[in-house]
Amino acid sequence: MLRTTMHILLVEDDVELARQMALWLQEAGYTCTHRASGAAALPLLAQEPFDAVVLDVGLPDMDGFAVVEQIRARGFSIPVVFVTARGDVTDRVRGYKSGGDQYVTKPFAVEELLACLEAAIRRQNGVQQPPAAGTRRLGRWTLDPIKRRLHDGTETVELQPREWTLLEVLLAHEQRTLSKKFLLEKVWDIQFDPGTNVVDAMICRLRRKIDTPGRPSHLQTVRGKGYVFTSAT
Questions:
Q1: Which end of the chain has fewer CB atoms at under 10 Å, N or C?
Q2: Which parts of the sequence belong to the OmpR/PhoB-type domain (predicted)?
């Protein structure tokens, strides 16, 4: 059960919708701070501790995708739930690639919003992680599922929520060839191929973080089939 004192940053320029969403969040046990633009919201992340961001894509000063990119560029791994009227696959994929964790299309039911928010926070806090991950080794790295990072005693590598989810899926299917379709379903909850390179881009990003220079990659590409992962190289 999630604790009920979590603090949510709500970024929504529609005043009436923001009022209603803030009410829903408060009734669900969250505290909520509202801002109507990306420029007003971004400085707050360095000033106050938030547990998640609920973010409209269609903001007046910058779109929500750009806001998330800035959040990640500033080193914040806080979960982000998009709320938007843009429901096509291209926008959803762009949202995930920019660093978002969940994507809710307007109009939505309060139950859907809260479920997506809770799922994003659970993933961030390491709830329901595979038991073996607590002591799992990955080459020179030791995995820390609570803080979602890798460390080797001298160096620490932070993983974003989606990167950690991808790593979990790869670890659970080690030495098996995993197709892009399979990874889209397990990591992004997309049930069909959207025709973008979202999987390839995330694989490349994860390689840069977990591979050791001069050693074989943990992630090998199998041409025309997908990827094979091994924890020992």
A1: N
A2: 133-231
Main-chain dihedrals φ then ψ at residue 215, nearest 5 degrees: -115, 155
Q: Do 155 and 72 have their domain in common?
A: no
pLDDT tens, position by position, 21-30: 999 998 888 8
Domain final position from 125, 151, 185: 125
Domain range spanning residue 44?
7-125
**Gap between the terminal Cα atoms of the chain:** 38
Q: How many domains does the chain have?
A: 2
- Reported residue count of the chain is 233
How far apart are alpha carbons 9 and 25 in whole angstroms?
10
Q: Are 199 and 180 in contact (CB under 8 A)?
A: yes
Q: Which pairing describes strands 31-35 and 7-11: parallel, antiparallel, or unpaired?
A: parallel
| Rounded Cα–Cα distance for residues 1 and 118 (Å) | 10
CA–CA distances in Å: residue 161 to residues 23, 38, 182 = 27, 21, 18
Q: Are 28 and 94 contained in the same domain?
A: yes
Please write the tens of the pLDDT for every residue from 40-52: 999 998 888 888 9
Buried b (16+ CB within 10 A) or exposed e, 36-53: bbbeebbeebeeeebbbb
Q: What pTM was estimated for this model as a whole? A: 0.56
